[in-house]
Amino acid sequence: MIYLSGEEAKKFHTSKTAIALGKFDGIHLGHQLLLDGLRQEHKKGLQSLVFTFGSAPNDVIKGAQQKTIYTREEKVYYFSKLGMDILLEYPFTKEFASLTPEDFVAELLVKQLGVHSVYVGSDYHFGRGRSGNVALLKSLGEQYHFDVNVINKKTIYGKIISSTTIRDMLESHFSTANDMLGSPYFVYGTVVHGNHLGHTIGFPTINQVIPNEKLTPAFGAYASRVLIDGCYYKGISNLGNKPTIKGNHQVGLETYILDYQGDLYGKTLQTELLFFLRPEEKFPSIDALKKQIQDDIAIMLEQEAFEK
Predict the structure, then answer these.
(1) What is the pLDDT of residue 197?
(2) Fewer Cβ atoms within 10 Å of its own Cβ: the N or the C terminal residue of the chain?
(3) CB 293 within 8 A of CB 301
(4) Gap between the Cα atoms of 231 and 125, Å rounded
(5) Predicted pLDDT at 308
């Protein structure tokens, strides 16, 4: 997959594209309907291109940075995994925000990116002051001879699936947030050295740092799985800052992987959180922590057996 951001994205030119437009925070089930359309267009000979922004528009306009469900690195990884040809992370600046809807379509979509087909959600707005809507986009599509495909909002459990809803539910209703995402919430990061406590108590773990800009669910233990060389391995993950261990610790994800032996330091892995087990807590002793890990594994295996 070609990934371009910043000035490279502004200078990039291509042709014969099917383009999905949106913020794509979370790449949830609704977003994936847009991507399904791009994959179908790819079969017809068009390049699948995701057009999004390096910074959320509200971050630039209001000057406040919002945490994201998936980091930039995670989005690049995920879009590539989903089979997209091009990810264009266009810089959202005050200059860009001043573009009229007509100029956005004529200069960027048509002239710069060679659009043949566009996929958007039914509530899509674009251009200066969000003045452009789906009706205008369709009109401009007729003028410049490209197709406009409008995807209606998807609902689950009576709620419209959106990044905002998922963000609100991630901490308090993790299973619902996961269902809306369409695949388990994940951390994609390099395995770093921890304090090696796990090795001393019989539960060697991998450690992944959580970037400050990443939105996380509630701190605690989760049933998880780790993708290693194309295979999934079951695990127990602790998300948080290790209150049982003395000292201050950066927020991270520590995972004990069942039925795996091997050196994973320095590898960049995807760790998926499947379901919540218990809140993070400070244990009175290392033995108590060891006992809890054993209990967590038993609960995870029992629930998996029940779900089957």
Answers:
(1) 54
(2) C
(3) no
(4) 40
(5) 46
Pick the closest to residue 291 from 177, 201, 207 (CA basis): 201
Could you give the CA distance from residue 52 to residue 170 in angstroms, rounded to a whole number? 23
Q: What is the pLDDT of residues 167-212, one digit of tens each?
A: 999 999 999 999 999 999 999 999 998 765 555 555 788 999 999 9
DSSP one-letter code for 129: G
Tell me the pLDDT tens digit for each residue of 128-178: 999 999 999 999 999 999 999 999 999 999 999 999 999 999 999 999 999
Q: What angle do CA 301, 217, 299 make, to 5 degrees?
A: 15
Tell me, what's the pLDDT at 306? 47
The candidate with the shortest Cα–Cα distance to 225, out of 152, 295, 292, 274, is 274
Which contacts qualify for 293-299: CB closer than 8 Å, 24 or more apart? Answer: 293/201, 293/203, 293/236, 293/256, 296/221, 296/236, 297/236, 297/256, 297/258
Rounded to an integer, what distance in angstroms lies between the CA atom of residue 46 and that of residue 196? 50
Q: Provide the residue count of the chain.
A: 308
Q: How far is the C-alpha of 50 from the C-alpha of 107, rounded, in Å?
A: 17
Residue 146 and residue 118 in contact, taking contact as beta carbons nearer than 8 Å: yes
Distance CA 155, CA 289 (A): 40
Task: For residue 241, count other CB atoms closer than 10 A to its CB.
Answer: 15
Instruction: Give CA–CA dist 92/213, Å, rounded.
Output: 18
